[in-house]
Design goal:
Elements lengths: L5 E4 L11 E4 L4 H4 L2 E2 L1 H14 L9 E2 L9 H12 L6 E6 L12 E2 L4 H5 L4 E9 L15 H4 L3 E6 L5 H4 L6 E4 L2 H14 L4 E6 L19 H10 L4 E7 L10 H9 L8 H25 L5
Parallel strand pairs: 1-2, 1-4, 4-11, 5-7, 5-10, 7-8, 8-9, 10-11
Antiparallel strand pairs: 3-6
Length: 301
């Protein structure tokens, strides 16, 4: 079905969606989960090109756990190439509790992919919004990749995080801090509605408050109505989108992934009964988000 959602099924975490195109990728789970080498990313990207519908003919892409958020990198590039023609550059908006712009020397991982797209000449700007994580605070400042912030290609939109250190480095204009998720949503929706350009939207559901849905990662404070407000502001501008942040239970076979995951405080082992309940809530939210994104892109409801 044209403009139906696509499920990149790496971890069996995404429930059924109306009219879906589901692509079985479970053999890639250990390789891609949390992080991977660039050669593996290139190999999976080539495989996706043969398996996915044309970028202009499918709806939101769902990829399972937030451990796979770095797959947004090839999806953004795919959307960018599909647009073609003389249209203006692509804007990328990411709703996430983390900046996903941290240093990672072993290829790319779910917390480092933003720099990869922000530095592309075809990308006008990247807004990462909804951050409550200390990843952009003083004690983790050295881990942030500063280049896209310095050249004005990346902005952090945070809630209640002290980012005074950014002013000391002369990059304070790249940081927007708010006292509530509603004030952030109001300001971002106003900007997106006023500055109308082709946009790719990526949603990591760890941006939501735990009373909305549960994920494997520490979570932010965004409410569903506030996410809807941001999506609605993109009506007629949305060229592509993805959703990640499913909850799934998994034990890494790779020692360094187990160690890094533990350092990040990730919760990957969940009791079966609890997992079933949380995944049912995730499935219901996915249905609502997919419908909202399709409406924003102007597709039939």
């Amino acid at each position: 079905m044209k403009h139906s959602p696509v499920v990149l099924d790496l971890d069996n975490a995404v429930g059924p969606l109306t009219g879906e195109c589901r692509i079985a990728l479970q053999d890639w789970q250990e390789t891609m989960r949390f992080g991977c080498g660039l050669s593996h990313m290139r190999a999976l990207t080539r495989q996706l090109e043969t398996l996915m519908p044309p970028a202009t003919q499918h709806g939101p892409v769902l990829m399972g756990s937030g451990d796979f958020h770095h797959l947004s990198w090839p999806l953004v590039v795919r959307c960018m190439h599909a647009r073609g023609g003389p249209r203006s550059k692509l804007r990328v908006v990411v709703l996430d509790n983390h900046p996903d712009n941290m240093r990672f020397p072993f290829g790319v991982h779910c917390g480092s992919w933003i720099r990869r797209i922000a530095m592309l000449p075809e990308v006008e700007h990247v807004h990462v919004a909804g951050i409550t994580s200390g990843d952009i605070g003083l004690w983790h400042s050295w881990e942030n990749q500063l280049a896209p912030l310095r050249i004005g290609k990346l902005s952090y939109w945070s809630i209640g995080v002290n980012t005074d250190w950014a002013r000391w480095l002369g990059i304070g204009s790249a940081f927007r801090n708010f006292d509530s998720s509603q004030s952030l949503a109001d300001e971002l929706a106003t900007l997106l509605h006023r500055q109308r350009v082709p946009t790719y939207l990526s949603i990591d559901k760890d941006v939501f408050s735990p009373d909305v849905v549960r994920t494997n990662w520490d979570q932010g404070s965004l409410q569903e109505a506030q996410a809807n407000q941001i999506i609605d502001a993109l009506k007629g501008q949305l060229d592509g989108s993805d959703i990640t942040g499913e909850v799934s239970s998994y034990r890494y076979r790779t020692a360094w992934k187990r160690w890094l995951s533990a350092q990040d405080g990730q919760d990957t082992i969940i009791a079966p009964a609890q997992l079933t309940l949380w995944q049912a809530e995730q499935d219901a939210l996915n249905q609502r988000l997919v419908a909202r994104l399709q409406k924003a892109q102007g597709w039939p409801e």
